[in-house]
Write a structure and sequence with these properties.
Chain B: It holds the Pfam family BPD_transp_1. Chain B: Keywords: Membrane, Sulfate transport, Transmembrane, Transmembrane helix, Transport. Chain B: One of its GO terms (cellular component) is plasma membrane. The complex is a heterodimer of chains A (about 325) and B (about 280). By secondary structure, chain A is of the alpha/beta class. Chain A folds into two domains: about 120 residues, 3-Layer(aba) Sandwich (D-Maltodextrin-Binding Protein, domain 2); about 150 residues, Periplasmic binding protein-like II (D-Maltodextrin-Binding Protein, domain 2, 3-Layer(aba) Sandwich), CATH 3.40.190.10. Chain A has 17 helices and twelve strands. In chain A, strands 4, 5, 6, 7, 8, 9, 11 and 12 form an eight-stranded mixed β-sheet that branches. A four-stranded mixed β-sheet of chain A has the order 2-1-3-10. In chain A, helix 2 links the parallel strand 1 and strand 2. The longest helix of chain A is centred in the first third of the chain and has 23 residues. Chain B folds into two domains: about 45 residues, no CATH class; about 230 residues, MetI-like fold (Orthogonal Bundle), CATH 1.10.3720. Helices cover about 75% and strands about 0% of the residues of chain B. The chains are: A alpha/beta (about 325), B mainly alpha (about 280). Chains A and B meet through helix 3 and strand 6 of A and helix 7 and helix 13 of B.
Chain lengths: ~325, ~280
Amino acid sequence: MTLPALFRRSVLAIALGASIATPAMAQERELLNSSYDIARELFSAINPEFEAWWQEEHGEEISVNQSHGGSSAQARAILQGLRADVVTFNQVTDVQVLADAGLVAEDWQQAFENNASPYYSTTAFLVRKDNPKGIESWDDLVKEDVSVVFPNPKTSGNGRYTYLAAWGFADQAFDGDEEQIQDFMRTFLANVSVFDTGGRGATTSFIERGIGDVLISFESEVNNIRSEYGSDDYEVVVPPVSILAEFPVAVVEQNAERNGTSDLARSYLEFLYREDTQRLLAGFNYRVHDETVVEEFADQFPETELFNVEDVFGSWDEAMETHFEGGALLDQLQRR
Amino acid sequence: MNQRASRFAGSTRVLPGFGLSMGISVLFISLVLLLPITGLFGQLAGLSLAEYWAIITEGRVVASYMVTIGAAAVAALVNAVFGLLLAWVLVRYEFPGKRLLDALMDLPFALPTAVAGITLATLYAGSGWMGKLLEPTGFQVAYTWVGIALAMAFTSIPFVVRTVQPVLEDLPAEVDEAAMSLGATDGVAFRRVIMPHLWPALVTGTGLAFVRSLGEFGAIIFIAGNMPYETEITALMIFVKLQEYDYAGASAIASVVLFVSLALLLAINVWQGRFVRRLHGGKG
């Protein structure tokens, strides 16, 4: 082949390549939702709904991408430059970290209804068939012959909720008597047989390895586990008193601005509050706020007394400081 | 050019390309090794010496050193014995399936460690195949330090086999035949003739296996049970610090592991140099 021919050919190739590449680059806007580990299936269901809704309302084709991982690991990734437009976490503290770094608005909890938490859950128990140890509430978990499985509060937000729920229960039961609460917590923690690093690991230990009499996790998660692994073999117990677990959402404003998706990001999070989406969320065993949906699903969610982290522990920051930091209460209670 | 020639004047180097290859080596080492380590120490810069000391001597962290070092030592010693045996079998005997066994040896390197950990936990938990057999005898593997050592031994055995194997291959069978024809018994031939050649490789392999075990996370975390003060490994402590956004704390603990590993590898290198010199009747 002569040189000019080669040249012509390559020009052609480049032109061809460009013409193929252009449609893909035709300004189809993308939204990246950074979320917690066990929300993969949930957002796989929500995202197509949102894409269709946006298309209908604005006549624009968009796509929503998901990224999942431990909530804290996700926040760390964003701090280090992952350009997520919105976060949907299971930890208030992980959004707060982003707010402290200036990536999320300081008043993010006021940006959306219900403390920017479109749905919520609580901490509940999964016990083996017929509940042989008769576990109904938190004080059954400190009995000598009960062995408990929940993820490590040091590495898992899910585990932190469990710890705080047990503490909140003891706080109520012992009328705030610090010494009695700590005794209760010490026994409770000593009854733990395995500390997995995350929620799914704890599930594996309980289900596949047959360890423990009770698995403690989010109500949504224990219900999902039960329907996945056989409703005949396991029972869900929702204790009469437990903690309110919020699932906070926020726009990562710095990123959304840079990606030109601010309007999209906001609509996406507002979309989570719409009746249809709330129904979908309730189908995934999350508790929701929409009154029509709440009524429809009334049977599915037993009435319980839920307390706020803020009510019992002051604030998340205080709870982290007095309980979970190195050398703090959790470390002291586990010391042998 | 002149300068270079004069610098190397009198050197016996015959291969060309030293400057270029050395340059690339240094660049590569800098990018792949030194840069991340510098980053690690950069994280440490925010700590005062007192804070650093407080983090690395915290009770729970110290307990994790004990667990990690103890289990890694057991795993390394077990691997030293069985790794040597495996290398011996692979080099000195011919048998069907030898190639397959040889290839299997690298499996722990190829397998994602988390998969290994989950598999081991499944096998050795009370409901697993091995657990069912062992648990009635009162010997619990999963969720104890034995499980940790087992996971470490699994991930690090290739280090011993793969360092000893080539040395054994270079040692012809005639050597032990000669020893025995000169009247040495099996035991003496093995101890006095073969082992001296193998020691450096065996110690290096064992050292590498030990150091590898110190940093292992994925394989161990699923079988350890992670009970505070009992079965928590140091790598988990680092992970915990990261979960708390405490980069400096994580780096501080990581630096301890790094120092121990470096010191051990350096010590092995120095010892090896001396040993080899003595073996070959050098001036040392």
